[in-house]
Amino acid sequence: MTDLRITRRRFVQVSSAAAALALTGTGGCGMKGSDRAVKIVVIGGGAAGLGVSSRLVRLMKKAQITLIDPADRQFYQPGFTLIGSGVYRPDQVWRRQSDCIPHGVKWVKQAVTALEPAKNTVTVSGGAVYPYDFLVLTPGIQCNWEAVEGLSQKTLGEGNVHSIYDFEGAQKTWRAIQAFVEKGGRGVFADTYTKHKCGGAPKKICLLTEHLSRKRGTRDSLKFDYFTASKALYDVPFFTPRLEQIYKERSVSVTTHTRVKGVDTAAKKVHFLRTETVKKEVPDPQTGEMKTVEASVATPFAEDYDFLHLAPPQSAPDFVRQAGLGWTEGKLAADAWVMVDKQTLVHKTFANIVSLGDATGVPTSKTSAAARKQIPVAVRNLVSLVEGRAPEAVYDGYAACPIVTDYGHVLMAEFDYDKKPRISFPLSLFDMSTESRLAWLLKVYALKPLYFHGMIPGYW
Ligand SMILES: Cc1cc2nc3c(=O)[nH]c(=O)nc-3n(C[C@H](O)[C@H](O)[C@H](O)COP(=O)(O)OP(=O)(O)OC[C@H]3O[C@@H](n4cnc5c(N)ncnc54)[C@H](O)[C@@H]3O)c2cc1C
């Protein structure tokens, strides 16, 4: 295990310098704005929507910018994992939304219920209709809890079924993890079959629980099993070998190709479907000759658990699907992720719409780290569109997932569309194919202030 012997004081110095570099480098300085008096509507004021709005307001002084979002609070969601493991208190991860909306932006505190891209209008829950010239689509992800039989957001915690994909759920998770580690038994951890926010989160909470049991001296009374719907534990080759090794060293079994179908909270049973691809001989409809085709076969089975942690299936919000803005073909179609060009983030059918953040349909990880790199690209391209020019800025698929491997270490996975490592300075000075203390310090102490004071106000 790599342990970079770095003091907290030294770390704060290094990260402040890096942050300062980043702040001066990417805050929109030097980016050309526009004087056109256009109407821009931003749907969703989370990581992506606020970051875009903050920059637009500085670059387009005459534009009328309206941000639509019903939320009272702005959550730093990467902190949910740290609430679920007792590192953060719940009150450390949120700010009042009213304090996060940039000056000069009109905030409509309602949910969007309908969107008519052919008419350039957005309808909100109160019935009011907002016309736009340009639209920024950043409503994040919809967690479809009910797609798991026997589960709902409200019943999280019942039958010891937990999820850090929910603010209250993360708090219940921490209480339950402590009891589980104390009492002993079998912990079952699972991800989901759809694309989901921070693919590393279900793995992190599993490893943190395992480490907690060792810290408390109860590891021998516990069993840990991880189930993934994917074909491998992780799919970024630079980081995967070390992560698989960690699971092996810590005796956490990994079962692939397996998704949660339902939960029986009374019996404490989780129902799974294991999907396999098999080869079948079938007659060719034209020639009648037998030919080999591949077919997917799902086998159901059930497992007992004492503690269960899962990620819910996820999709773009319903109004995106209903507006016909989601992908219509390919892997991203089933969950209606917004159909954008993966480099420019401009919608493929409606050239006055840009989309970024979790709702967008690009083949990379859904993380705020990805949104951070998408923001300047989307803003630059939106300004070009407003000015009647072709969008030129390019997003390369950068995403990052700090995989917390124990209390004190993080495997900082940073990569692009090609799944090549894209390690940021100053981490690039070290071997980041393995977990480190430095990345833990970054995760726990630096990323949250950078989110609230750098990314959301549009400087980082
Ligand atoms: C448990 C967990 C761990 C994570 N860990 C990490 C991590 O370690 N690193 C990392 O980079 N990322 C992590 N993430 C992911 C990160 O939080 C998201 O990728 C990021 O928040 C996406 O930003 P967004 O703006 O697209 O969506 P969000 O930040 O979710 O914002 C969406 C906004 O849209 C609003 N909205 C929704 N529906 C409507 C509607 N109908 N009308 C109007 N507004 C609407 C919402 O109220 C919300 O304010 C994690 C997430 C979770 C849940």
Q: What's the average pLDDT?
A: 94
- Major beta-sheet overview: 5 strands, parallel
Bound compounds, each kind once, are:
flavin-adenine dinucleotide
The proportion of residues forming helix, as a percent range, comes to 25-40%
What would CATH call the architecture of the largest domain? 3-Layer(bba) Sandwich
Number of strands: 22
Pairing-aware structural class of the strands and helices? alpha/beta
Task: Spell out the CATH superfamily of the largest domain.
Answer: FAD/NAD(P)-binding domain
CATH class of the largest domain: Alpha Beta
Distance between the termini: 31 Å
Rg of Cα set: 23 Å
Shape: globular
Sequence of strands across the biggest β-sheet: 5-2-1-9-20
CATH fold label of the largest domain: FAD/NAD(P)-binding domain
Task: Write a structural description.
The protein has helices at 8-26, 47-59, 79-84, 97-100, 167-183, 201-215, 240-249, 318-322, 368-386, 437-455; strands at 39-43, 64-68, 73-75, 94-96, 106-108, 112-116, 121-124, 129-131, 134-137, 142-143, 161-162, 185-190, 222-227, 252-255, 258-264, 269-283, 290-304, 307-310, 314-315, 353-355, 399-406, 409-415. It contains 10 helices and 22 strands. Strand 7 (121-124) and strand 8 (129-131) form a beta hairpin. The protein has 2 domains: 35-141 and 316-396, FAD/NAD(P)-binding domain, CATH 3.50.50.60; 145-313, 3-Layer(bba) Sandwich (FAD/NAD(P)-binding domain), CATH 3.50.50.100. The protein has 460 residues and is of the alpha/beta class. Residues 43-49, 68-71, 77-78, 80-81, 111-112, 138-140, 164-165, 197-198, 201, 317, 319, 357-359, 366-369, 371, 400-402 line the site of flavin-adenine dinucleotide.
